[in-house]
Amino acid sequence: MLALTLLLITVLSLSLPALAHTFTLQNQCEYNVPLFIDSWPGTVSYTGSPNLKLQPGQSTQITIPSGWNSRICHNYDCGNCWGDESMVEFNVRPLQLPRLSQPYGAVVLIWWLCGQMDAGGLAYYDISNIEGYTVPQEIIPSTGECATVTCTSATCPCDQAYPVGNEQGCGAVVDLPVKACASQDFTIIYCP
């Protein structure tokens, strides 16, 4: 009976969504990289310090709560992600949430981990240069089965990042810069 109970607990724990996600932030630049970890209004908030400054060669891990829905931006004033900073994004793209009419930062990494990530098992992520380009970035999912995206210039290919000024995903029917992955953890490298 004990063996059956342990087996059942193990199976159930494997089928439950992650309660948190680990993001490893690595600065391989020869300069400091100030970051701001934003939280989308009305969703689960990131509860750690939103302002980070990575020294050259520094790496740190942050814990993102399940249900978090937002972005991490390269941000000189550490105020928010609504300017001309570079970003990574994580999105719930199957829900086709509209992109904001407010300006994005340049090279923004946006991560929308709400709803579909935890319910459907996928995280949707992209690099955004919509408002401009400020720092080379790379998103690496923790599993090798998912696409790594890399953008090292303002003219990186559309399948790797949103181009400067382009909110349409390069005019394609499919939003080319957005990737989907069952991975729960990611590494973001600055100056890959």
Report on this model:
The chain is mostly beta strands and 192 residues long. The protein has a single domain, classed as Thaumatin, CATH 2.60.110. The chain is 10% helix and 32% strand. It has 2 helices and 12 strands, in the order H-E-E-E-E-E-E-E-H-E-E-E-E-E. It has helices at residues 2-15, 116-120; strands at 20-27, 33-37, 51-54, 59-65, 69-74, 87-91, 108-112, 123-128, 137-141, 149-151, 179-181, 186-190. Strands 2, 3, 5, 6, 7, 8 and 11 form a 7-stranded antiparallel sheet that branches. A 5-stranded mixed sheet has the order 4-1-12-9-10, with no helix packed on it. The protein is globular and about 35 Å long. It starts with a helix and ends with a strand.
So what's the CATH class? Mainly Beta
The coarse silhouette is globular
Percent range for β-strand residues: 25-35%
CATH architecture: Sandwich
Q: Give, in order, the helices and strands.
A: HEEEEEEEHEEEEE
Number of strands: 12
Instruction: Please outline the major beta sheet.
Output: 7 strands, antiparallel
**First CA to last CA: what distance?**
52 Å
Unreliable segments of 5+ consecutive residues: 1-17, 91-108, 111-119
The CATH fourth-level homologous superfamily: Thaumatin
Number of helices: 2
User: Helicity, in percent?
Assistant: under 10%
Determine the mean pLDDT.
72
CATH fold description = Thaumatin
Q: Determine the structural class based on helices, strands and strand pairing.
A: mainly beta
Question: Measured on Cα atoms, how large is the radius of gyration?
Answer: 17 Å
Signal peptide: 1-20
InterPro entries: Osmotin/thaumatin-like_sf, Thaumatin
Protein name: Osmotin, thaumatin-like protein
Keywords: Signal
